[in-house]
Structures are given as C-alpha cells and as structure tokens.
Amino acid sequence: MTANPHRERPSDEANSKQLAIARREGAAYQEGLRVMATEVADTGGTQQAGDYIVGFAQERAEGMYHLRGEGKLEWMEPEDENCHLEVSVSDAGDGRFIPYLTIYATLTKDSGEVVGPTRMPFVWHPGLYHYGANLKVPGDGTYDLAVKIEPPDFMRHDEVNGKRYAETVEVSFPRVRITTGRE
C-alpha cells in the first residue's frame, strides 16, 4: 500500500494529534457523502481530482428556505426546475469538506442539449454540507456531468501543508442517469 501523497504532515502549525482529529472529521464527512450519493439520492458518485475528492448526487427538485431579510426565512418550492444537483468537494488528504468554493456544473444530455454552466452555491443541510441547485433539464435520461472548481481565494495556513487548491480543477462524470421531477 502506498502512502497518500495528499496526506498532511506534522508541522509547526499542526501536530500529529491535530492532524489525526482532522482525519477523523474527514472520515465522518466521507461516510455522510457515501450515504448521500448511494442511499439517499437517485444517483451519485465520487472521484479524486488533484487535491480534491469531488462527489455528486442527483435527486428530484426540492424546496428550500431562502433568507429574505434579517430573521425572515421563506420556504421556496421549485417552479420550473425538475432536478436537484448536489456537489461535494473535500480535501483528498484528510477528507474534510472545503468551504468557500466557486463551483460550476454543466449537464449535457446524450441528445446534445446543454444545461449550464450553473453556479453551485453552498447549501446548508442537516446531514451533509454541500453545494447545489435546482435546475430545469430536458427530462429523464443519460447526461454527462462536468464540474469546474475555481481556485479559492481564502488564505492557507501552514508552510508545510498550505500549498494547495491553487489551480482550476475540472471533473467529468460520464453517462449519469438523471431522474426528473419534484419532491
């Protein structure tokens, strides 16, 4: 078995104990991602791309709360949307969710229709933080999913482990079976 080249090493910013705690947090997140992608969603999957583990899940379009002013949350049902697409991005070294990313997703139906690119905003979810949006797609069928992750502008701590997430990453999930509708 080879060592994970993305795994963090102890440094003056994070000792072995701190890194082990981060890996446990990442393992819990990865278990939540597995459940979302394989047990809850209609379809889903993951793959590693450079410093990232990129996952997706697809379900029927669903309602969500939107902030409409200080202390005012409003439940919004999907209108014309018939697909809810979720994207997860986590660190390939420790498995933890990565916040503050700019992510775009494009779905291309096997017949050639293209939906997107669509920005995937952060979605707070009680089971798994992720990025996602409701979309209007041409209907049930097979689609290619392309995910683009821009390099984040957040600061990185640690001279040993901090040089990461500096380039745009694009990931493809070919032949994804999409089931449309509304929950």
Automatic annotation (TrEMBL):
Tree of life domain: Bacteria
Sorted UniProt keywords: Signal
InterPro entries, per database record: Metal-bd_Tp34-typ, Tp34-type_sf
Alphabetical list of Pfam families matching this protein: Iron_transport
Family: Belongs to the UPF0423 family.
Stated name of the protein: Iron transporter
